[in-house]
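Researcher: We're reviewing a set of sequences before deciding which ones to prioritize for further study. For each one, I'd like a predicted 3D structure that I can look through quickly. This is Plasmid pRiA4b Orf3-like domain-containing protein. If possible, include the structure in token form so it fits the rest of the review sheet.
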Amino acid sequence: MDRPDGKPLQIVMEDVADTLDLFDFESYEMGRDRFTLLEDVFPMTGQIHYEYDLGDSWGHVITLEKTVTSQALRPYYLEGAGFRPPEDVGGEGGFEAYLRIMADENDPDHTHMTTWSDSQKERDLSMEQINERLQRVFMGYMYSPYFV
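Model: Here's the predicted structure for Plasmid pRiA4b Orf3-like domain-containing protein, in token form for your review sheet.
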């Protein structure tokens, strides 16, 4: 995300090993995930770049479409569409190979990939189930003054 001073903000998870050792302080301003609010990020830009699963490097562009005001400090799933790719499929390149193999029943890896894929399927969750899970995660989160 570009900042007014021209230095992009990179939000990091502090509990990931070596985050501080590997961070490029010359090129980026660091935002800590626990203390960086999305309401502070989006006024500067309508889009943010998000990398999920640093091993597979899934890159996402998240675009702010609307805001919903609430007095409650809690995560809440509003809406969504589609399914996620299988976990640990190997990033974008692995996902492309997965789709190619799954589409070709004659591919020598098709049977193996189908068996593996069945173990990775996304569960079809309702909005209520997703929000219940988000609440459980949020209830387990505790602010610690030791990380300030």
